[in-house]
Amino acid sequence: MANKAKLEALLTLIxxxxxxxxxxxxxxxxxxxxxxxxxxxxxxxVDQVALKSAIRTLEGACAQIxxxxxxxxxxxxxxxxxxxxxxxxxxxxxxxxxxxxxxPKGLHVNELSKQINIEPxxxxxxxxxxxxxxxxxxxxxxxxxxxxxxxxxxxxxPVKYMILFHVDIVAKGAPVFYETLKDPKxxxxxxxxxxxxxxxxxxxxxxxxxxxxxxxxxxxRQSYHTSMRGLNDIMGSLAVLTHFPFEKLSTVVDVGGGIxxxxxxxxKTHKNVKIIIHDLPEALxxxxxxxARECPEALTENRVEFKNxxxxxxxxxxxxxxxxxxxxxxxxxxxxxxxxLSNLRKALGPNSRVLxxxxxxxxxxxxxxxxxxxxxxxxxxxxxxLANFGVGNMRLYQQDMTMLFVHxxxxxxxQGSLTLATAAGLKLEKVWDLVETCVLEYSAA
Length: 445
Fold this sequence. Notes:
Keywords: Methyltransferase, S-adenosyl-L-methionine, Transferase. This is O-methyltransferase-domain-containing protein. InterPro entries: COMT-like, COMT_C, SAM-dependent_MTases_sf, WH-like_DNA-bd_sf, WH_DNA-bd_sf. One of its GO terms (molecular function) is O-methyltransferase activity. Pfam families: Methyltransf_2. It is a single chain. The chain is an alpha/beta fold. The chain folds into three domains: 3-80, no CATH class; 84-153, Orthogonal Bundle (Arc Repressor Mutant, subunit A), CATH 1.10.10.10; 223-444, 3-Layer(aba) Sandwich (Rossmann fold), CATH 3.40.50. It is built from 20 helices and twelve strands. The protein has helices at 3-26, 49-69, 72-80, 84-93, 96-100, 109-116, 120-132, 158-168, 177-182, 196-201, 210-215, 218-235, 240-243, 263-269, 281-294, 296-300, 334-347, 366-376, 394-407, 414-423; strands at 107-108, 137-140, 143-145, 251-255, 274-279, 304-308, 322-326, 353-358, 360-361, 412-413, 426-433, 438-444. A seven-stranded mixed beta sheet has the order 6-5-4-7-8-12-11. α4 crosses α7 (120-132) and α8 (158-168) crosses α12 (218-235). The radius of gyration is 23 Å and the shape is globular. The model has no long low-confidence stretch (mean pLDDT 95).
């Protein structure tokens, strides 16, 4: 395909995917505007697979055509001159969105400055950068109000806690990342104790893994588990509740289930299922309180059970229908992952299934993408998009770096996941492609 023809094809993809997204929004009401001051009904839909599919193509094609047509120096500097995270940290920690709820017509930075004790001219620059990104509205000069995007930063929204996790914890790994790659003592290590974040924190005398650190700090642990609920919206992971046939099942074991980010919606959607949540004792203390408050009927009807489990040393409850692991395997290097999967295999009955729900890295090789599409049902990117959807799938690769920074772990390719699972005695039955994430369904080999 000639160069101009590729650009024309990308323009067609942009137009088609944008129209697809518009049509999906119209099914729920009017199309959202960038300055909209309330959520759109589709924002909280359980199944966003079709929308995420359209946006993946739209973002990928837009970024690819911009990178093609813009001068290289322009694009290269844009990769590094990014301070959004620093500004997001300010407004998230200072509860700016909650404050602005009281001022639907907007609040001048001079008044906002008095409430959060940040110099007003600096604050205006922070707010204007975020508003330029579509987060907050500048309704008049130096007067800012909430919009649909900034409402994500309300204290009641669990996504805010995932944002805080990134800006407060994950960001510590970036300044020392290069040093960890060159330090001869740890450069070739995948030990979680020397992940970049821990490398930075350990300078203050902290030891162990990030999970060890959170175990010693109730507030950090509780915030982390709350952030896991935010993944439902970020990943669109609850679509599994409508795509996988849970209505035909009796028992589900949520391995490393925390406070029930997946299990709570499961219990409310499929009341036929009895759930066992496996996690460490400190996580289950918080879980019991949340279930008593948010889903007490599941407790009174004995549809949920909390059981302590160290999945490195213990075998989950045996012989159940489904063993569900969301964002568990990606927290650990290969050695630890092999232990988790080995113990999991010992629990399986002849009809049991394992559902591993994670990001799955796509290959840039068009040949490999075609193989995965034809043999495993993974959706491939239309040409001339990059075979992995390019920037449309960027969060997968950013998330891979997050795992490296935080745990010395990784998001895995489909082949990498299969290699570990096969070694543990698991057989792949099906790939459930949910656009941003995949659910890998295994049986006992």
